[in-house]
Specification:
Blueprint lengths: L2 E10 L2 E11 L4 E5 L6 H9 L6 E6 L2 E2 L4 H7 E4 L11 H11 L6 H11 L15 H13 L5 E5 L7 H14 L4 E5 L3 H7 L2 E6 L2 E6 L1 H7 L3 E7 L5 H5 L6 E4 L4 E6 L2 H14 L4 E7 L3 H8 L6
Parallel strand pairs: 3-8, 3-9, 6-7, 7-8
Antiparallel strand pairs: 1-2, 1-4, 4-5, 9-10, 11-13, 11-14, 12-13
Helix pairs in contact: 3-4, 4-5, 5-6
């Protein structure tokens, strides 16, 4: 396994930030690590990279324990922290050379710096100081330093935070390209990014893992679903709202509705009986599972309480 987390726990005084969580990531996976603010995402990532010591439990990277084999772990992990700390007085090439020296790349340094500048699209900005770069280019530098030493695992904490739509697409493509040969654990609040890049999603809430599955399975296995229904003529909204198995409804057109339910089969039968009694024709009826955002909200409801 590229990453193995077993009963990992972190307690700050009286607050249990991470509560005995366990999961594994295989080589080549891009996994979205989701959760509301304060759920324990960044704390977990810091424990996996060895920056934080767990209160109990273990984490390992490529078979090396993050607390007892720290140097081996750091050789195999590329980490982009949420704050993306950079030395703003350094130039792009100078900073990457500094990072390469830390990883003791030696004669390979120049080649890797050139490769990272090319891969991350830093060519036009490489002669600038880091403090003069836009947020998007600073993120590119952060990704370049995370990948410069050929790590087998990438830990990326909010890599697209604060970027404009064009920059988000560019960083997404960089991560997807990197994920072809590496294991990537990616924290983000942008659900479109997860659906575009990730093969799997882990959702953490109040320090506990509440979901660990593929995006499609999460969307199809949740208890709340919906039917998209169109009628041959306008219907009585009050009458439709009284249906037993409708938990929520919203108009999607003059004669069409999205009806949320916890049992689509029961609602189908109820709708057919209701339409017959009301002398209405149903022109179309199809299932719609929850969006990833709706799944996230349902699993983390009350997180701010």
């Amino acid at each position: 396994m590229s990453i193995r987390v077993q009963s990992l726990t972190k307690i700050y005084e009286e607050q249990k930030a991470v509560n005995q969580i366990s999961f594994e990531l295989k080589p080549g996976e891009i996994v979205g690590f989701l959760g509301p603010n304060g759920a324990g995402k960044s704390t977990t990532m810091k424990m996996i990279t060895g920056y934080l010591a767990p209160t109990s439990g273990t984490a390992s990277v490529c078979g090396f324990d993050t607390q007892t084999d720290t140097m081996q772990v750091r050789q195999r992990v590329g980490y982009l922290a949420e704050a993306n700390p950079l030395y703003y007085d350094m130039y792009v090439r100078e900073y990457l050379a500094f990072t390469a020296a830390i990883h003791q790349l030696g004669k390979e340094s120049k080649q890797r710096i050139d490769e990272m500048i090319s891969i991350t699209g830093l060519g036009r900005e490489m002669h600038k100081k880091l403090g003069a770069l836009s947020k998007g280019y600073k993120q590119r530098v952060g990704l370049a330093q995370a990948m410069i030493h050929h790590p087998e695992v990438l830990i990326l904490d909010e890599p697209t935070s604060g970027l404009d739509p064009n920059q988000i697409v560019e960083i997404r493509e960089l991560i997807a390209h990197a994920g072809q040969k590496k294991t990537v654990l990616l924290s983000t609040h942008i659900m479109q990014e997860v659906q575009a890049m990730c093969s799997r999603v882990i959702i953490i809430n109040r320090g506990n893992i509440v979901a660990d599955d593929s995006v499609e399975s999460l969307k199809s296995n949740t208890s709340s679903e919906a039917l998209l229904v169109s009628f041959g003529c306008p219907v009585n909204e009050l009458s439709l709202r009284k249906l037993k198995h409708v938990s929520k409804m919203a108009a999607t057109g003059d004669q069409s509705w999205k009806l949320s339910t916890t049992n689509t089969e029961q609602l189908r039968r109820e709708l057919m009986q209701w339409a017959l009694a009301e002398n209405l024709s149903i022109t179309s009826m199809q299932d719609e599972g929850q969006s990833l955002e709706e799944v996230f909200r349902s699993l983390t409801a009350g997180a701010e309480a």
